[in-house]
Amino acid sequence: MSVLKSNTHSSLQRTRKRDYSVFGLSALLLLCGCYQMANSGGFEDSASVSAFLIGALVACCGYALSWTCSKCWGAAMLLIALVARMIMLPMGSGTEFERLVWDSETLQIGLNPYEEAPVLGRFGTPDEVEWEDMEFSAQSTRFSPLMLWLCNILGFEDGSLQWAKFVFIILDMSLCLALFIRFGAAATSQYAWSPLAIMSVGGMANSDILFLFPMGLGLVLWSQWVEKSGGGSMINSKGGIGGGVGQIVCFVAFLLGVSVALNLLMIPVLVWLVLWVLRKAGLKAGLIALVVGAAPLVLSFLWLSITLEEHAATFIPIKFALKVELFSFLPSIIDWMAGYWLHANSVVFVALVCFAVYALVVNGSIGRMGTIYISTVIMLSPLIQPWYFLWLAPFAIVMGHYGLRVASVFAFVCFLPLRSELTLLTEIELSLFESWMLWAPFVFCSIWFTIKNPARTSGFYVRSF
Predict the structure, then answer these.
(1) CA 11/CA 3 separation, integer angstroms
(2) How many CB atoms lie within 10 A of CB 440?
(3) Helices 74-87, 185-192: inter-axial angle, 10-degree rounding
(4) Could you report the per-residue pLDDT of 212-232, keeping only the tens digit for each?
(5) Of 214, 315, 189, which Cα lies nearest the Cα of 266?
(6) Is the domain of 341 the same as that of 262?
């Protein structure tokens, strides 16, 4: 018996040592890779691009190694995620942040950035960024009115890049903390340690975290206080929409509404919640959820309509990327098969609307609906940039979608063409092999998730975590 005890203790010690070793090595590789990326992320020449890609490879190796660790320590995981983002601060921002600032200033001086692109010289000073070098300079803005308004409120302007990065890092780490409290360290590390997320927030200052934060926080509250506690049947049994569960549902609807007002593509997620409340708690509760959820979007468009004295429909960024096909999946395939006589963007827009309606009908959980819908948006979108894969992050953590992991690694394929010719990101074309490297893992994971997680169209279903 004493021998058995001794062997068991020795086995536990070996397992613990392995966990510490794997966790420490993966963290070291991640931080070293991020340091290399930050110091060579300006893309001044092809050598710096190669150095950046080497750093990305090292960081991705550390990220992938962390998947094999049987134990993940929450406090250490969050600390390393924060340090990695802070390491990326010296990296130059992408042109997307500069475009956000320009569009925000355009709106601030009373011009409508949704009708036409700003003309060089309207802002006066010659030392500003040349408009011809700006991202999608021939297109109107892609940002929603609320996004431009937040840019003004938060003080994002020319020269405020580091301040913007600090704001984005705070929001991003707050999202990681909320996900960690609800789903644990191992699940949260899929996003917190993602080299793509680290580069996007701490390095390139992409504004997507502004809508991902309320979306992720809403999903956390929904899974903890609604799904886990019994779902829609608990609304009426606990005081109706004005009771405890009902108030949480309304707050989640508001958070999703804020996310929708910042990114209009998230509308079907909010619509699913409203329809769910209608079915489970009745007409009154559904209408209240609709009003609360739609308020941020309606008020932001109404505010802009009054300010510019124009119809609210003119502020929908529908003109953006009508003819841009950057790294796209299905639009590129359609154009390749059908030629230019068939406008791929029109086809995929109709397909997206049809699929969104289908997803609203068949999915019994918000996690599955959001996961499959956003995966489809990414595959159908005529414009894809690497960090758009992060839109899936909150749902991937909730539902266990491996697409977030593979996209966090293979999205760096988009930077490979920069080694041979430095050019604007909007002009890059991937080779056939590079396109397969980018899309094949993500599409396979999306199909695998759909097969392994069939839709639950009837019956009461509460996801267990």
Answers:
(1) 12
(2) 12
(3) 10
(4) 999 999 999 998 888 766 666
(5) 214
(6) no
Residue 454 lies in a domain: yes
Measured CA to CA, the distance from residue 78 to residue 169 in angstroms comes to 12
CA distance 178 to 166: 18
What would the pLDDT profile of 189-217 be if each residue is shown by its tens digit? 999 999 999 999 999 999 999 999 999 99
Residue 333 and residue 292 share a domain = no
Pair 315, 345 in one domain = no
Residue-range definition of the domain harbouring residue 365: 321-465
Q: How far apart are CA 426 and CA 26, in angstroms?
A: 33
d(CA 371, CA 392): 6
String of DSSP letters for 173-210: HHHHHHHHHHH-HHHHHHHHT-HHHHIIIIIS--TTHH
Q: At what angle do helices 344-362 and 366-380 cross, to 10 degrees?
A: 170
- Tokens 């005081």, residue located: 239
Contact at 8 Å (CB) between 381 and 328?
yes
12, 20 in Cβ contact below 8 A? no
First to last CA, the chain: 37
* Domain edge (last residue) among 320, 337, 362: 320
In tens, the pLDDT along 269-297 reads 999 999 988 988 888 889 999 999 999 99
- Cα 326 to Cα 9, 379, 414, 428, distances in angstroms: 56, 12, 10, 7
Q: Tell me whether residue 110 is in a domain.
A: no
- Backbone phi, psi, residue 135, to 5°: -65, 130
- Bridge partner residues of 383 (DSSP): 326
Structural tokens at position 309: 């004295």
Q: Quick one: tokens of 433? A: 């092999």
How distant, in Å, are the alpha carbons of 19, 21, 189, 209, 306 from that of 26? 11, 8, 12, 25, 53
Let me know how long the chain is. 465
CA distances to 69, 133, 280, 366 from 185, in Å:
11, 41, 33, 22
Task: Specify the 3-state DSSP secondary structure of 383.
Answer: strand
List Cα–Cα distances, 396 to 117, 191, 237, 277, 427, in angstroms. 35, 9, 31, 23, 30
145 falls within a domain: no
Q: Is the pLDDT of residue 128 over 70?
A: no
**Which phi and psi angles does 383 have, rounded to 5°?**
-125, 120
Q: What is the DSSP letter of 118?
A: P
* Distances from the Cα of 207 to the Cα of 5, 104, 264, 336, 377, angstroms: 55, 13, 14, 32, 18
The answer to whether the beta carbons of residues 192 and 27 sit under 8 Å apart is no
